[in-house]
Amino acid sequence: MTERRNFYRVLYAQPDAPLSVIKTNHRVLMQKLQRYADQDLADEQACLLNTALTVLQDPLKRAVYDHRLRKRYPLSKLSLGRFASGRIKNFHGMTGNTPSTNRRNYYRILQVQTDASMALIISSYSVLLKYPLQNSELLDDAFAVLANPVIRIRYDALLAGITKTESKQLIPSNYHDKNIPEHKHSNITPLYAQPDTTKTLQHCIFCYTPFANQPSLYQSDQCLECSSPLPSDQHDTQIQQHRFHRRINVAGSIVFYLFWPDSPYQGILQDISPKGARFLTETQLDLKDIIKIDAPGFKAVAEIVHTHPAEGKGLSIGARFLTIKFTQDRGNFIVANA
User: Fold this and answer.
1) pTM value?
2) Which of 28, 127, 186, 280 could form a disulfide with 268 if both were Cys (CB 3.0 to 4.6 A apart)?
C-alpha cells in the first residue's frame, strides 16, 4: 500500500512541532486505537502511526522529509490542515493567521492540526506548559478557545474566512471558566462527549484517512484530509446511469494527484462514462495506480486500468472510478460508488 499522507497530518501535529508534542500525540492516538471495533483497521492505523513516528523522531530522516515536503508546500499552507484543502472559498489569512486585529492562529500556538481531537489539544497544552520560556498566557488563551466546543466552532469559522468575527468576540459574555475542561498536569479528564468507537470505521480510498458514517461536527461526503469523494454505503449506480447510459466524448482540462499533499498534474479529458474516463497526459502513470481527479463536472478517485501512447506525444490513460461525485448546474449532486 503506497502511503500518500503527510506524516504531520497523521499525528495531528504542526509541521514544526517539537518532538515532545509529536510523541504525546502518538501515544494518545495509539491508546484510542484500543477502542476500535475493527481490529484490522486498528492494526493498519497503528502501523501508519509508528511509521510516521519513526521518521519524525529521527533528526536526519525528519530533515530530509521536511525538505521534500516544503519544496511542494509552504509552512503556512501545511499549518492550516483541512482549511488549506481548496474547498473553502474566499479564504482569509492564508499566512496561517486569523483575519482580525488578533492575528493569532491558536492551532499553531498549541502545535496541533485544525482537526485535532480534544484529547490531543489537552495533551499538547500540558506538554507545552512544561517547556521553559513558554508564554503561558498565550497558551492559556489558545486553550480557552480550542477546549470549548462551542467557541471552537466559531473560531474555526473565523479561521476559514467564513465569518469576520473579531477574536475578542469569540468568548460569549456569559462564558465562565467552568466551561473549560480541567487541564491540570495530572489526571486530565476532558469534559466532552466521547465519540462512539464501537462503529466500524472506513477509510478514504485515496489517502486512507479514517472516517465513520455517523453524525459529527465535521461530517462530510468528502474526505476531510484530501477532499476526495468518500465511499458510500448506498449503491446509486442506477441513478448515475440516468445521467448518461453510454460513454460520451467530452473535452476539458482536469488535474489529478498521485499523493497527498502533492502538486497537481495536468490532463485533457477525452471521454467519460458512469464507470470511468479516458484522458491525455504527459505524466507517466502505471497500471493499478490510484489517483485523485478534480474536473469541472466531477471529483473522483480512480484506478489506472490501461495506458498507451497517444498520437503526437504523451499518453492516453484509461481510469476506472472507485468513488465519484458528479456536480450539476442545477439541483444537488449525486454521490455514488462506481
Assistant:
1) 0.52
2) 280
